[in-house]
Amino acid sequence: MSLLPPRKRKGQPTTTTSGGNDGNLPPSLPVIDDRIIRNKKPDYELSKIVGLAVPTIYKHEALGTFPPRVKITGKSSGWRWSQVKQWIEGKRDWRAAQ
């Protein structure tokens, strides 16, 4: 179950998860969309996805009950979609890997 539409990138052919071989991937490899989700003005994408306010997300991150941020540049960071999706599916049982 994906809450986000597949990410479209310029200049790259679209891939499918149906197992068909379009020449780019062997049929046995799944397509993984592990993009970085930002949580900044004006849209607060992460807050909309998980249904939590920005301060609540940071509080849970500090407690270790929400996935940690990933640095993108010196001042910018985001969250990996795969970890956020895992948190959504497991919610209260999720703990950061020690």
Q: Estimate what percentage of residues fall within beta strands.
A: 5-15%
Please tell me how large the radius of gyration is: 16 Å
Strand order of the largest sheet: 1-3-2
Order of helices and strands: EHHEEH
Mean pLDDT: 77
Silhouette: globular
C-alpha end-to-end distance: 27 Å
Estimated helix fraction: 25-40%
Largest sheet: 3 strands, antiparallel
Number of helical stretches of at least 4 residues:
3
Unreliable stretches (pLDDT < 50, length at least 5) are: none
Q: Structural class, from helix and strand content?
A: alpha+beta
Find the count of extended strands (DSSP E, 2+ residues). Answer: 3
Task: Tell me what you see in this structure.
Strands 1-3-2 form a three-stranded antiparallel sheet. The protein is 27% helix and 8% strand. It has helices at 45-50, 54-63, 81-90; strands at residues 36-37, 70-71, 77-80. Strand 2 (70-71) and strand 3 form a beta hairpin. The chain has a domain at 36-93. The protein has 98 residues and is an alpha+beta fold. The protein is globular, with a radius of gyration of 16 Å.
